[in-house]
UniProtKB/TrEMBL annotation:
GO terms for biological process: proteolysis. This is Peptidase M19. Keywords: Signal. GO terms for molecular function: metallodipeptidase activity. Pfam families: Peptidase_M19. The keyword Protease does not apply. Residues 1-27 form the signal peptide.
């Protein structure tokens, strides 16, 4: 009798191994590059549109992150086996109120038009995707697909009817908030103001459902995430987030919420943002040196000529050497990835490098590093079906379900 429980545990373990070993063996036999090429490789958060207005910068040219900080362009997408992604209409959270809302609206309209103009100008290489099924159709035409998303809802906060305007322009994913609270929701990195969503934020959720726009809860506070999961009739997405149980950062999500996200059909896209993976202290001397470098070059933010950009990147090297910051690597990334897969399951996990928006880690500096993720997934025992889901299938499925909710609401049919 005392031995029966241990013997039963061994039997269960042995049976599990018998079932799992063929699956692991099948995964191990996959050719990583072929497995990568077989998947629809989609990144849900490219901040690359911020580069489109750089003087002399073209998405058709091959750039080098070590020279100009950029991480996504067509030649590197081809090398990294990247088929497309969500190109972001990002608006920093500025002053709130009538004037601030108008400024945010105009900024976002301009950025959305920049994306459309890029696709139009390079129509042999790219095509705008407006529905989940468009991705495969565009790939069949030997092009890269471009979905559009909106990060931070401040452009629509003053008038939620603008959500339809941006939908008409092509936006298919939208998040209510960024680093600071907005009129729609509390941010994960600000002091709580609304207790989650504001009253307008709740209307925002309903309007996104009505339009068939995927709701993006990255950057939202925990309570705002809870409320979006509860209120949305369609699954929601975390377009670039990590796991709080791996590294405790406000931008990451705990296991309880990961499970709730998955239970409603949602997806977390694991991002490659170093500060959300490893402790990253503030170094005042470093920040002062970087500010002085920018001042000496007469630049501010992304508004740099190609020559200024190169000079800034070069001038930053001795600063990095003198005041280095800890930097995450691929092992850190895979800790988040494998943890999310274990907690939420392979139907609810994807990838985003958060490239051109602060992302990039050792071993994953730009989109050319993506095949390494596939190699590591195979080494962890994941087969082609799961790789297909993780790289694009899950995100496209969420978009398709948002479209189905829109159609059902339009016709008034119940589930």
């Amino acid at each position: 009798m005392p031995h029966r429980l241990p013997l039963l545990s061994k039997a269960v373990l042995t049976a599990s191994l018998i079932v799992a070993l063929p699956v692991i063996a099948q995964a191990a036999s996959l050719n990583p590059r072929k497995a990568h090429e077989a998947a629809v490789v989609l990144d849900t958060h490219f901040d690359t549109p911020a580069n489109l207005s750089r003087p002399g910068w073209s998405i058709l040219d091959r750039h080098d992150v070590k020279l100009d900080d950029s991480q996504v362009d067509l030649p590197r997408m081809i090398e990294g086996g990247v088929d497309g992604g969500f190109f972001v209409v990002f608006t920093p959270q500025g002053p709130r109120g009538t004037a601030g809302n108008a400024g945010a609206r105009d900024h976002a309209l301009y950025r959305a038009m920049e994306i459309r103009e890029m696709v139009s100008r390079h129509n042999r290489e790219f095509e705008l995707a407006l529905a989940a099924d468009d991705a495969e159709k565009i790939l069949a035409r030997k092009k890269r697909f471009v979905f559009m998303s909106m990060e931070n809802g401040s452009p629509v906060a003053g008038d939620l009817s603008l959500m339809k305007t941006f939908h008409d322009l092509g936006v298919r994913m939208i998040g209510p908030v960024h680093f600071r609270n907005s009129d729609l929701a509390d941010s994960a990195t600000d002091t709580a103001e609304w207790g989650g969503l504001s009253p307008a934020g709740r209307t925002f959720v309903a309007e996104a459902n009505r339009l068939g726009m995927v709701i993006d809860a990255s950057h939202a506070s925990d309570l705002a995430l809870d409320q979006m999961i509860a209120l949305s009739e369609a699954p929601i997405i975390l377009s670039h987030s990590g796991c709080k149980d791996v590294y405790n950062h406000p931008r990451n999500v705990d296991d309880t919420r990961l499970k709730a996200l998955a239970a409603k059909g949602g997806v977390i896209q694991i991002n490659a943002f170093s500060a959300y993976m490893v402790p990253t202290p503030r170094i005042p001397e470093r920040e002062a040196a970087l500010a002085e470098l920018a001042k000496s070059l007469g630049v501010s933010g992304r508004e740099m000529t190609p020559a200024q950009r190169r000079a800034f990147v070069e001038g930053r090297k001795p600063i990095d050497a003198r005041w280095p910051l800890p930097r995450a690597n691929m092992d850190d990334f895979m800790k988040h990835m494998l943890h999310a897969l274990a907690v939420a399951g392979p139907d609810h996990v994807g990838v985003s490098g958060d490239f051109d928006g602060g992302g990039g880690i050792e071993g994953l500096e730009d989109v050319t590093g993506y095949p390494e993720i596939t190699r590591r997934l195979i080494a962890a025992g994941y087969g082609q079906a799961d790789i297909n889901k993780i790289w694009g299938g899950n995100a496209l499925r969420v978009l398709k379900e948002a479209e189905a909710v829109r159609d059902r609401l339009k016709t008034g049919k119940a589930d």
